[in-house]
Amino acid sequence: MSKLLQLNRENWKVSQLGECAILMELEQEGYQTAKVRKVLNVLESVTINHLIDIIPAYHSIALLFKSPVNLHLVSELLAGINWNDKKNSQPQKYEVPVCYDLGLDWAEVEDFTQIEKAQIVETHSSQVYTVAMMGFVPGFIFLEGLDSSLACARKSNPRTSVPKGSIGIGGQQTGIYSLESPGGWQIIGRTPLSFFDVESNPPIKLQPDDKLIFKAISKDVFDHFEYE
Amino acid sequence: MITLSMSRLTVVNPGVFTTIQDSGRFGFGKYGVPVSGAMDVESFKLANQLVGNPHHYPVLECTLQGGLYRFDSDAEIAITGAEMNPVVNGKLIEMNCTHRISKGDELILGFAEKGCRSYLAIFGLLQADKIMESYSTYTLAGFGGYSGRALKKNDILKWEPTAKVEFSHETLKPIDLDKVPNVKVTLGTEWEWLDKKIQEQFFDSNFKVMNQSNRMGIRLDGRALKSPDQQMISSPVIPGIIQLPENGKPIILMKDGQTIGGYPRIAKVVDDDLWKLAQLKPGNSLSFRKVM
Asked: Which residue in B has a C-alpha nearest to residue A195's C-alpha?
């Protein structure tokens, strides 16, 4: 059972994800990061009783409540919100240094893409990427904008531990493991930047739709990287 | 100078997998942080209530086999959840009630004869890492609880005195472990993607809990359910959601589960039945019943 809502001139399908959770999905499928961010901005600026978390993804958003909620009531509530994004927060742009020499899977990536490492580095570090979402594991940053020539199958045997700061390619996507965690993406480099701090609130400053560019650095610069 | 000596115990044997858990970590799902917290919320709350702690206080969650703990201070404790035949100084003690422990006493929690997870609450506030507003241990990323990991031999746990909570209306009862195999679900957001026959097969099947099950998810074995042809775009998931990967073996997401998933969400275990999943051991069987 679901309901259709028009918010900000976009059609959203609203359904029950669990007793205490509502799922909003854009009717239009695929990467919809900018539209998701707009709705996210408004949701975060209004007060919704008992709302305890908002989880954005590629074309959907989950609203998690403290206690059971009713689809009809939440739909009415959503329809009553003023969806003009007054805060109008602009996406931030970040430069991310990457030591590509610390990649762990160059042989596999070169073999799969049939492109040499130097060219892959050149291509990978000349795109502007968009933060699509964070998830799967804490601080894993999914990025849109990978050049299609660099698409590469995931590892058939996922690693039980990928080092913190690893930059990976998984299918058509690239992303950052901001904490050490298990993972199956092909690792092509590492950033000395620390994105995720479990002691901070929020633990990560990035937001969906923020822009990232990668800048290649040497192993020496990586080793002596100074945090601002 | 006054030094306050805190009460403590020594972990002589940590059991199979014992972690500190509280009611969970809420509000950080947008950063990919799972809720964590006690898998069997009913038994967790009861353990705290029995010793006079607030319901959300951190406790020990013991999996399959509880271990051996030497109390270096007097304590008031309660053990709930899976039947682990607790023994103090060689004498069997009862589950689901409060016990006074004296300095020097040894507590043994054995193999889970019935159920899978037991909860050991100690009156007072356990000292543990509070990360993102919760004491719960999340071992995958290594934070919270006891240094972000399961307990090890020779670890020392400390707790500080707190005010006793009086529970005038005792509404919590021990769980009924005989009810574990019948799990109530609601239909999932991608349920309609399944063929009619596969939908029937899901409710007619007996599934078996696989060995790879853990705090992240319960993996089910059984006759494979044909997964739908539609391609799923990764979307948010919560504990209790049953995902159907390409191999046709459902996975029920649990408290340490991921926040975003890429498989069809075919059903959702109702929140009131999540404790049953926490008490399923590898090899146990279960079936699903639809509720509105």
From this structure: B31
